[in-house]
Amino acid sequence: MPTTPILITPDALEMHHISAGDTVRLGVLAGPEVSPVTVILESWDVGGAQPPNSHPASTELFVFLRGHGVAVCDGTEVAVAAGGTLVLPPTSLHHITNTGPGRLYALTLMSPDDGFAAMVRRGPLAGTDDEDRAVLAAVPSTVPSTRPSTVPSTAP
């Protein structure tokens, strides 16, 4: 692993499908060659879903950035939306469907990688557009300020 900082910018993003005809695009932002946690931008087309899948040794975490959908994990269905975080344990059988009128976006963190980044990169290129880059560029502005003047008081 590198010993100096690495900056990946939105312009460097390459989105892939895992298989031709998929309705979910994935772009590796950081893989196992640079980090013990793989970070991926995922984008679901309107009505898009990935097939049910499982990761035998990996925890998968989704931080939803835009849109809304439904996640099913081992038969349990939960609504997901921008601002929410979904944690899926190893061995769970899961899939996410975009139920909104626009794309659904999430940052996905996988640990250990267990070949996930390589599988994404082997898939066919799926195109990257201005909306994809704008979602990434907007992420820092969605983090609330931690300045004392903006933190609500917890005093009784």
Automatic annotation (TrEMBL):
Any Pfam family: Cupin_2
Alphabetized Gene3D superfamilies for the sequence: Jelly Rolls
SUPFAM superfamilies to which the protein is assigned, alphabetical: RmlC-like cupins (SSF51182)
InterPro entries hit by this protein: Cupin_2 (IPR013096), Flavonoid_dioxygenase-like (IPR052538), RmlC-like_jellyroll (IPR014710), RmlC_Cupin_sf (IPR011051)
Cupin type-2 domain ranges (all copies): 44-107
Protein known as: Cupin type-2 domain-containing protein
Species of the source: Frankia alni (strain DSM 45986 / CECT 9034 / ACN14a)
Organism lineage string: Bacteria, Bacillati, Actinomycetota, Actinomycetes, Frankiales
